[in-house]
Amino acid sequence: MTAIAATAAASGIAAADIADFSFTDRDGNLHTFFEVIDAAPDGAAVYLLLFDPDCNECKDKIDALRDNRAIADGIADGSVKVVAVYPVEEKPAPSDPNLEKYLRVAPELPEGWTIGIDNGSIFEGDFYQWDTLPLIIRYKKTEDLTGRTPESLNDGK
Length: 157
Description:
The longest helix is centred in the middle third of the chain and has 12 residues, at about 55-65. By secondary structure, this protein is of the alpha/beta class. Strand 4, helix 5 (about 95-105) and strand 5 form a beta-alpha-beta unit. The protein contains 5 helices and 7 strands.
């Protein structure tokens, strides 16, 4: 049982409600979402941002996260982690237009963020569902998952 599943069980959330998925970062390394959260210190806030590189609202939300002083300070001191992932239905082949879109935008995203493209696994479960992107979920390592938007990031919740 991962630290996330253990935390979820202790807080009354079914472990299945905290869905793991794999992604490839901008340097070509394979990661899982649980691995990123497990590496964060206890009490850290982890923001999962699902985005589409061609989505204007996604760009606005990325800018809001990037410009948020509390998030920037938290990244600097290790108390905040931002994981931005472009969800795709299957692992992209080298000639896939989704991969081309991702590779175009990945260098523009902040260095302190974990940036990646989904390997198709995010669609395997029912936890991550959305009508439109972006989707932002804030996870506090010692608490449960709660949905957040950049507009609520400064409200202390």
